[in-house]
Design goal:
This protein is an alpha+beta fold and about 375 residues long. Helices cover about 25% and strands about 25% of the residues. The protein has two domains: about 240 residues, Naphthalene 1,2-dioxygenase Alpha Subunit, Chain A, domain 1, CATH 3.90.380; about 120 residues, Rieske Iron-sulfur Protein (3-layer Sandwich). The structure holds FE2/S2 (inorganic) cluster (FES) and fe (ii) ion.
Length: about 375
């Protein structure tokens, strides 16, 4: 994040903390039906998880030629490879003979060819059909049109984004990430995460709609009550500054040390010393930058009432080496403990949606990022 933006956040939150004020905004609402209606759910999958770039891997998993990752989280079977030419490619992990899953492992390295476990058709790292077992019995197969179906893919800031819809021949496999990220592009680039390592990834299956999972990250209002025994003591009570950035948002949540910045020279101020900086990347990813790591939280739809969230912790290898493994384990445990608290109450919310108690969810002025998020989703589905 630009230095000027960091200063502005610090000053804004310092003022709020001193005056015990909250970030202002509009009260907003969203229908409870959007969290369980099956038609709405199918539309979300068809649009948000087929036409938008979603995070399916990290650069750290795909550094070398022959590295691959297979990922089904979006509902599409996706295979990502690093070719001998250094290029990243993505495909549907589906054999062109009779549709078996080609690569069964979730990741690996030194791969030269993918061999289908059903009848042995094989494909290279570029998706090209290499071999057909007993090929003479298939007549003339045009290998150029029987490679693995390509998907659009892009690598940004240590994350691998894929649009999970098969490209037609001649369609570009590039994603215009500059346009997609818009005003958060420069921010993400400035965090310089390209060379970071994946410290851990934990998949969780909460009994919650996938959007309700994202909701839990977008305000600090609940910390005092829900996270009193876990992460609440690390932060000032609900001192958070939000900014809408086109379809995304960014915000900073304030640590007690912000009250001391007035005694320090301005040129030494650094936002991450006094706050966690978060981005809600449309449609399903939250990034949380702390002093020494980035939490990457991706939420995928499983059913209207069930989500899959991957909790990944990315760390700069230089920072990682400075601290013992036990430090990183404690950090991971604290995050997972807080999420367990979130998802326990979240499951009760999901179960209660059908009770008829509420027709809408109400978002207070300092919960405005939830209102923005649900508005952006509604607009994308129009
Ligand atoms: S389905 Fe893959 S070789 Fe037959
Ligand atoms: Fe929480």
């Amino acid at each position: 994040m630009h230095h000027a933006d960091q200063m502005a956040y610090i000053e804004r939150m310092h003022g709020m903390a001193r005056a015990n004020a909250r970030d202002d905004g509009q009260v907003s609402h969203t229908s409870v039906e959007e969290y369980f209606d099956t038609d709405r759910f199918e539309r979300e999958k068809a649009v948000l998880f087929r036409k938008y770039p979603v995070v399916v891997a990290f650069s750290a998993q795909l550094r070398k030629p022959g590295d691959f990752v297979a990922n089904n989280d979006s509902g599409q079977p996706i295979l990502i490879t690093r070719g001998t030419d250094g290029k990243l490619r993505a495909f549907l992990n589906v054999c062109r003979h009779r549709s078996a899953t080609v690569e069964l492992k979730s990741c690996g390295s030194n791969k030269r060819a993918f061999v289908c476990p059903y009848h042995g058709w094989s494909y290279d790292l570029t998706g090209k059909l290499l071999g057909i077992t007993d090929g003479a019995w298939f007549g003339e197969v045009d290998r150029a049109t029987h490679g693995l179906r390509s998907l659009a893919v892009a690598e940004r800031c240590g994350m691998v984004f894929v649009v999970p819809t098969a490209l037609e021949p001649g369609q570009s496999a590039d994603i215009d990430m500059d346009a997609f990220l818009g005003p958060v592009k420069a921010d993400l680039a400035s965090w310089d995460m390209q060379d970071w390592e994946v410290q851990s990834t934990t998949p969780i299956r909460p009994r919650m709609n996938w959007k309700l999972v994202i909701d839990t990250f977008l305000e600090l209002y609940h910390f005092r009550y829900l996270h009193g025994a876990s992460v609440a003591p690390l932060f000032l009570d609900n001192i958070t500054a939000y900014e809408r950035r086109e379809r995304h948002s960014r915000f900073a949540v304030c640590k007690p040390s912000i009250l001391e910045v007035e005694n320090q020279p301005r040129e030494t101020w650094r936002l991450r010393d006094h706050a966690v900086v978060l981005y809600n990347l449309f449609p399903n990813t939250v990034l949380a930058y702390t002093q020494d790591h980035c939490g990457v939280f991706t939420s995928y739809p499983v059913s209207p009432d069930e989500a899959l969230i991957n909790v990944s912790i990315l760390v700069d290898p230089v920072e990682r080496a400075k601290k013992p493994e036990s430090y990183w384990k404690t950090n991971q445990d604290l995050i997972l403990a807080a999420l367990d608290e979130d998802f326990t109450v979240g499951a009760s919310i999901q179960a209660n949606f059908r009770s008829g108690a509420n027709r809408v969810q109400t978002f207070g002025k300092f919960e405005k990022a939830l209102g923005w998020y649900h508005q952006e989703i509604a607009d994308a589905l129009r």
